[in-house]
Design a protein that fits this description.
The structure is a single chain. With about 240 residues, this protein is of the alpha/beta class. It is built from 6 helices and 11 strands.
């Protein structure tokens, strides 16, 4: 059963798992707080632990609140866009042909039909982002299937509001946030490894951490870098 600890304005979702230690997490981008505790932990004990970490929680939430956010994109000329961690200026060509996107030097060229709305331009860009990811994700999955000795039944790309990725341990598939196309490729690889490790261990317990420590020792640096990069402009909700 999920429970909630309230400390003033802070709400902490409590879950109990087959782990040895308490894990307190402040999640980007919105500062949501969760506490995972060993199965037999009494709520009063979990609450006392959360109180002892209250200053740390507030520091993490303040850091996230001050984190850079992308301004809303209209997909117009001279607008700044990122692909694989590099910044490009957009050029928009209005032509009565099938919409397309291309990279040329430091420019990203969007070709769209005259009269196309901002929503349509955004849709074309999102499909292009997915096409870029479809080129690089399968080789990375194959690489880590061999290293982790697991098998991914399939992967899905989608916009995700609060996560960079997820794993369905039962079905053996993973989901990746299409926003990852804007980040450096090594951060995409970290997310893939993280989600694939869940095929071995479903929870974020000590065993899971040990798997990452063994196979991807720099995972903490990658996670920190990913969470410090600018967030998308949209309003993030559960």
């Amino acid at each position: 059963m999920n429970e909630t600890i309230r400390l003033g304005e802070i709400s902490i979702a409590v879950t109990r798992k087959g782990i040895k230690n308490v894990h307190l997490t402040v999640h980007p981008p919105d500062g949501r707080v969760t506490l995972a505790a060993p199965i037999n932990t009494r709520l009063e004990v979990a609450r006392a632990y959360a109180i002892s970490k209250l200053m740390w929680i507030r520091e993490q939430q303040k850091k996230l609140e001050g984190q850079a956010r992308e301004t809303p994109r209209q997909f117009v000329g001279r607008e700044s866009h990122h692909v694989w961690g590099r910044r490009y200026l957009m050029t928009v060509n209005y032509r009565d042909v099938k919409p397309s996107v291309a990279l040329s030097n430091k420019r990203i060229i969007l070709t769209i039909r005259p009269g196309s709305s901002a929503e349509k331009r955004a849709e074309v860009m999102h499909e292009w982002h997915k096409s870029l990811l479809h080129k690089v994700v399968p080789p990375l999955i194959q690489k880590w299937e061999q290293k982790l000795k697991v098998r991914v039944s399939g992967y899905f790309l989608q916009r995700m509001k609060t996560k960079w990725g997820s794993c369905n341990h039962t079905k053996g598939n993973i989901r990746l946030n299409t926003e990852l196309v804007k980040k450096p490729r090594d951060l995409l690889e970290y997310v893939i490894v993280h989600e694939m490790a869940h095929l071995i261990e479903a929870t974020h317990n000590d065993r899971f951490v040990a798997i990452l420590d063994t196979h991807y020792p720099s995972w903490r640096d990658a996670r920190a870098e990913l969470n410090e990069l600018p967030l998308a402009a949209e309003v993030w909700k559960e």
